[in-house]
């Protein structure tokens, strides 16, 4: 019983992975500020939603850095926190989207396009750095899912900007806000499901007094 299955460190807790997470954290924190200011100025639901996504991701990267080197149980618990954060973000974005729909706001398409393109380049750079770490426990998968969702979301913002510019209608921007909400809610569910499975496995092996594969 002394060899608790949740006590073994993550095999991915390498200096290289730590550096990648630090880079991702800084990039996301900076882009949160840029996109939030641009979103408010342009009255764009999709830009504000994407900025909140950057903020949530920065927090998630910080949590991931905090639990690197800890056991599976602690990493799984951290993943549950990140799943709740991601789902909460989805609810907020859905609320903002409905508010702008009822308020009849109209976004500035050129600002959406320029800032959306900058955000896409930033997230693609982070995605390339994380490519080799896309498999692993729920904590690592949550990092990958967040970054993947960012790239998808940035592409959607650019499409929304084109749609707003071409149609003279705010509906494309609102639709993208809904897409962000869906990606966040579904991503949070996937992360939480795997994390709960890891916790069940850890507790079952602990009761049996059997070390987990990580501790062997």
Automatic annotation (TrEMBL):
Q: How does it sit in the membrane?
A: Multi-pass membrane protein
Q: Give the top-rank taxon of the lineage listed in the UniProt record for this protein.
A: Bacteria
Q: Which Gene3D superfamilies match?
A: Cation efflux protein transmembrane domain
Question: Record keywords: Transmembrane helix included?
Answer: yes
Q: Name one GO cellular component term.
A: plasma membrane
Supply the InterPro entries for this chain: Cation_efflux_TM (IPR058533), Cation_efflux_TMD_sf (IPR027469), CDF/SLC30A (IPR050681)
Annotated protein name in UniProt: Cation efflux protein
Q: Which residue ranges run through the membrane?
A: 20-38, 58-76, 83-103, 109-130, 151-168, 174-192
Alphabetical keyword list: Ion transport, Membrane, Transmembrane, Transmembrane helix, Transport, Zinc, Zinc transport
Q: Which organism is it from?
A: Chromohalobacter israelensis (strain ATCC BAA-138 / DSM 3043 / CIP 106854 / NCIMB 13768 / 1H11) (Chromohalobacter salexigens)
Give residue ranges for domain Cation efflux protein transmembrane.
78-198
Where found in the cell? Membrane
């Amino acid at each position: 019983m002394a060899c608790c299955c949740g006590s073994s460190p993550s095999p991915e807790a390498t200096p290289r992975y730590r550096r990648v997470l630090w880079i991702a954290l800084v990039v996301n924190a900076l882009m949160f500020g840029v996109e939030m200011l641009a979103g408010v100025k342009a009255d764009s639901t999709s830009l504000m939603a994407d900025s909140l996504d950057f903020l949530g991701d920065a927090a998630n990267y910080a949590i991931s850095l905090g639990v690197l080197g800890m056991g599976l149980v602690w990493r799984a618990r951290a993943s549950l926190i990140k799943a709740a954060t991601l789902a909460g973000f989805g609810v907020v974005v859905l609320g903002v989207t409905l508010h702008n729909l009822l308020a009849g706001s109209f976004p500035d398409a050129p600002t959406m396009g320029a800032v959306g393109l900058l955000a896409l380049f930033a997230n693609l750079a982070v995605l390339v750095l994380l490519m080799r770490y896309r498999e692993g426990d729920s904590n690592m998968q949550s990092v990958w899912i967040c970054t993947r969702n960012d790239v998808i979301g940035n592409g959607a913002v650019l499409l929304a900007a084109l749609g707003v510019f071409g149609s003279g209608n705010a509906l494309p921007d609102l639709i993208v806000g809904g897409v962000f909400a869906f990606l966040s809610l579904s991503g949070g569910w996937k992360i939480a499901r795997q994390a709960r499975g890891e916790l069940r496995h850890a507790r079952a092996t602990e009761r049996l007094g059997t070390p987990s594969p990580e501790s062997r």
